[in-house]
Amino acid sequence: MSDRSFAPWRDPVLWLAAPAVVYLVVVYAFPLLLLLAKSFVGPSGISVQQYIVFMDDPFNWRVVGNTLRVAGWVTLICLLIGYPAAFALTYAGTALQIVMLVSIILPLSIGAVVKAFAWQIVLRRDGIVSQLLVGLGLWDEPQRLLFTETGLVLGAANIFLPFMILPIYSVVKLIDPRLSEAGATLGASPLYRFTHVTLPLSLPGVISGIAFVFSMSVSMFVIPSLLIGDRFQTLSTLTGRSFLLMRNEQLGSTTAVILLVLAVAIVVASSWLGRRLGGRT
Amino acid sequence: MTAVERAVRLFVWFIAGFTVVFLMTPLVVTIAVSFGSSTVFTLPPPDWSFRWYERLAGMRGLLPALLVSLQVAAISTAIALALGTLCAIALVRGRFPGRETISTFLVSPLMLPGLVIGIAMLQGFKAMGLRDVYASLLVAHVVITLPYVVRTVVSALSLFDFSLIDAARTLGCSYQAALLRVMVPALAPAFLTSGMFAFLASMDNYPISIFFTDAWTKTLPIQMLQYVEERPDPTIAAISAGLVLLAVVALVIGDRLVGLRKLADF
Prior knowledge:
Shape of chain A: globular
Largest sheet of chain B: none
Strand content of chain B: under 5%
CATH architecture of the largest domain in chain A: Orthogonal Bundle
Strand content of chain A: under 5%
Structural class of chain A: mainly alpha
Oligomer: heterodimer
Shape of chain B: globular
Helix content of chain A: over 70%
Number of helices of chain A: 12
CATH topology of the largest domain in chain B: MetI-like fold
CATH architecture of the largest domain in chain B: Orthogonal Bundle
Largest interface: A-B, 94 and 93 residues
Radius of gyration of chain A: 23 Å
Helix content of chain B: over 70%
Radius of gyration of chain B: 23 Å
Structural class of chain B: mainly alpha
CATH class of the largest domain in chain B: Mainly Alpha
């Protein structure tokens, strides 16, 4: 390891990376590029015919609308709960912090099928949510939330919430509390201290949280299959259906490429924003 | 403390409590239903019973699916640990350009939609002539498990002091013995935690596995979703409760090895 006189690309350690990189290039990158390339090939050479056909159909626009609307609501709810929750997690005493960490990390290692099935039970007419809302006097009679858009948003927000809390928490716990105290010493009001000190410092975490939750909500497949059913299609469920049920590979690869581009765009945009704000991404 | 600060504090504690209850709801509901006697998911259950657990033995397709899942998860995790550790050493020790790009590339399967990766692999494997379902499933699952290993082992290795290996050699160890007796023990917690979470990710995967199943080869989540769609009854909750237990065990071991707070690192 001591000899640094040779060219860096001849560094022998480099070859240790080769098996993993070659493996992923062959079984992961190549198939993705193939998918991408095939979607731009028509009967007579390169074409965007598939995308024109896709955009011509108003049904498909409703599907895109459904996808973005649901993902938007899920992200908003996760942000509204997750932002204060990340602060609570940071400043909680040891016992509460452990309880919170367990309830955040434990669901992460449990599959979507298990959690979505649980939400099928929670969202029934005689389920917990319905009982709770009737008990609080907000609803006059029990209602079924399962197979409604509200139910889908609620279930998905529950399943993705840890991915909002953890990135925000990882940034908030690094904020020096003395900064806010210094602001107080200088006579800044609590609100001013929050909007001018704490909020800007927490933004990198917020951005990566939003990016995680939004991209996962756009591409979720199991959750909508179980919580809303076939009448409501998103880009992801349409992609799955066109391959698994309708055997319409043309439509499926078009929507798959749209999903892929959306996901990459979210990653790129969020890391660009994160860098601009001077935080870690 | 001003009234505003008190209100904010109260709000934050309220949110903390709400978050815990909200996040634990699906797990608690699953377990409660699995031990209930009601066929129609009545909560709280009218009576407690083990009847759904007793019915597990007679469920068609459950045991084969569980075995496929355990096998695929174990083998793909083992392969990922080998490939991932070698690569992590290169990323931490190497001085070549593009290390950042390589590490982003290796972790990227976590950031892209599983369904899209699955479809791409389905077509790509076909183009490459790989038709065996079980082999495809295994090859695909290494892609799922590899990011967990690379991420954790890279961060553990960057804290490892490589001069310890030189020290061991000065003291008379052979290079191999130094690696085995110094580096491997130091990295053991990282191997165990990343292996465990990679294993769980493989066990739980649905959107990629769905493209590599046939009548004989089904993973547990695929089989479970089929049960849910055909005939939802609390037997599925009993299977779920088993998976929750597995996750609890993993969490306890992870806490012992690296600590809860480290597990929350993002």
